[in-house]
UniProtKB/TrEMBL annotation:
<keyword id="KW-0472">Membrane</keyword>
<dbReference type="InterPro" id="IPR001828">
    <property type="entry name" value="ANF_lig-bd_rcpt"/>
</dbReference>
<protein>
    <recommendedName>
        <fullName>Receptor ligand binding region domain-containing protein</fullName>
    </recommendedName>
</protein>
<keyword id="KW-1133">Transmembrane helix</keyword>
<dbReference type="Pfam" id="PF01094">
    <property type="entry name" value="ANF_receptor"/>
</dbReference>
<feature type="domain" description="Receptor ligand binding region">
    <location>
        <begin position="2"/>
        <end position="87"/>
    </location>
</feature>
<dbReference type="GO" id="GO:0016020">
    <property type="term" value="C:membrane"/>
</dbReference>
<dbReference type="InterPro" id="IPR052612">
    <property type="entry name" value="ANP_Clearance_Receptor"/>
</dbReference>
<dbReference type="InterPro" id="IPR028082">
    <property type="entry name" value="Peripla_BP_I"/>
</dbReference>
<dbReference type="GO" id="GO:0007165">
    <property type="term" value="P:signal transduction"/>
</dbReference>
<dbReference type="GO" id="GO:0017046">
    <property type="term" value="F:peptide hormone binding"/>
</dbReference>
<dbReference type="GO" id="GO:0038023">
    <property type="term" value="F:signaling receptor activity"/>
</dbReference>
<keyword id="KW-0812">Transmembrane</keyword>
Amino acid sequence: MPVLDLAVYHARAEKIFPSWLQLTFLPQDDHCDATYAQIAAIDSYAECVHLFLGPACDYSVASVGRAVKFLNAPLITTGAFTFDFTEKKTACPDEYFMTTRVGSLAFRGISDVFLSPNGQRNFAGRHTCQLMMKSMVQSIKARQDITFGNFDVESMGLYDYRESLKTNIGNYYGGNALTVPVTREPSRHGLVTNSIASPKIIDHRIVKIGVIAPADPHHEQSLLKILPAVALAVNAVSLAKGPLPGWTIIVDYRDSKCSSTHGSLAAFDFHINKTAGHFYSLI
């Protein structure tokens, strides 16, 4: 945020912006996670944003970048390094239309360093590999949790590498594994629920269910096949002997087109218009 404030200050000093233009920034924490990024995009869209600055993490950019052309709000990011983001984005049918990367570095360029005949020289000159490895070695030496050793590769022929690796490295590191603890963060905004009972619903005796599935009748789990089963279930639970006797159960549905983008937009629509408190199906 301080960087944005400085940018606005300099833009106004250079009279790039007209004096009447009011800029408002709405900060959102995406946790570097695609799900939270989508939720942040929903909240921002509900505030009628004109431009998205970020996210930066690639999976977050992917989830929001596919949706911005439907929201009619362009996205500018300092991230988006994956190959897909370097593809053409100038026409509406393009996957990431209205998404703009700031900067020239991407993973495609890094891969060219190793795969292209002149990739190294184009990156940082003739000795790119040596300079890169030298920097890596210095970083490794500074760490206490990594054992560092070296051996001469310039004195051996191309076919000596296998034997040299056996001699100098062998199976010393075999069997060592890194265990990373995995934690699950609770869901937000009621987008995913495992129960149809909540204090809000109990007070109003109303359940709103959103069904998101493909409208294509040839799909195995299309709306055409799902909605009759939903109707039967709604009737069963709202009968006098059912678990929710006398309750009003409202079912609305959207076509997901079997697409992660259209499915997300359908969830956005339900959330913004408050037409569904629970999702029955997401396909």
